[in-house]
Design a protein that fits this description.
Shape: globular
Number of strands: 16
Structural class: mainly beta
Distance between the termini: 39 Å
Number of helices: 1
Radius of gyration: 18 Å
Order of helices and strands: EEEEEEEEEHEEEEEEE
Largest sheet: 7 strands, mixed
Length: 203
Amino acid sequence: NPAIKGTVLSVPSQIVHNAFVNFSVPQTGVYSIRVQDGKSCEAVVTVNMTACDVTDAVLVEAPDVLAAPGQTVCIDVISPNFPNDVLGTNFSVSWNPGVIQFSSITSNLTGFSTINNTNHTNTGSGQLGFIYNSPDLINPITLPPGNVLFTLCFTAIGSIGQSTGIGFSASPTPINFDNTMGLPIAPIFNFGSVTIAPPQPLD
């Protein structure tokens, strides 16, 4: 199924010749990995991931939503499957800044602040980093009700019919989830989207 895609976990600057590239996939199966450098013929290899167990992975996802031009739209980034031993997490969110304009990020995680827990210098380019560790660096992270990691708010600036994905990546902040033993936990990301649509009539 070509609609089912994996996520590259490696930082873009570290994806160079002869480097190892880390990735995760959302479910078991056989995947095609396509490598392109923009200068020569691409390479395609097949990887059998049918033996993977995804039940212990961290699941992070965003919804598909509609927004009218000029409307403020807020998106909950949630983790429906969040293991009870996660001590630290960081990853990035990306979007098309020509369709939606970043307004704010909020979170009910203990001690969260925009200054300390985000890399927000590239929001004008459609990128935001999220960094959060257990406040005492001993006990696992406890998620608020609804398993909401944080909420992103945007202003819809695109034209009707335009759409942007709400994606997850390793830029500007690398992807990393650690447990209380200091070991990495595999993440699974389900992308969301914002589509610019005509205003909905009031009931």
